[in-house]
Hints:
It contains seven helices and five strands. The protein is α/β, with parallel strands linked by helices. The protein has one domain: Rossmann fold, CATH 3.40.50.1010. Strands 3-2-1-4-5 form a five-stranded parallel β-sheet, sandwiched between helices.
Amino acid sequence: MIKQFVFDTNIIISAHLLKNSVSRKVYDMAFKKGLVLRSEKTFDELVVTFAKPKFDKYISIKARIVAVNEFERRSILINVTDTIKACRDTKDDKFLSLAVTAKAECIVTGDEDLLILHPFKNISIITPADFLKNF
């Protein structure tokens, strides 16, 4: 069975800001070991967040557009049918909804609002470092 992974926005951004980071290693590894999933809502958050001027000093807007387009091309769009309301930060419920709908193996995040829910409906919610150890 092919493993399916969900990444929160900050991990995807970190993977592109820090080329030798654990986030980057996990990001690259996930595409090799399985499918990386996105929903319209998670992808929209990535586009809006990564376009913010605060990233200008780290990476050009052109490089960010390339990164977002690459992620869109390489990841799988899932039509989310489950609406989950379980996270203390309601903005993070979209990652749970995506993972539950797709029956993902795990959500990779550094966000304590998600990590505190591990495991969630048989879905692991893990840090990038834990992903490296377990996959």
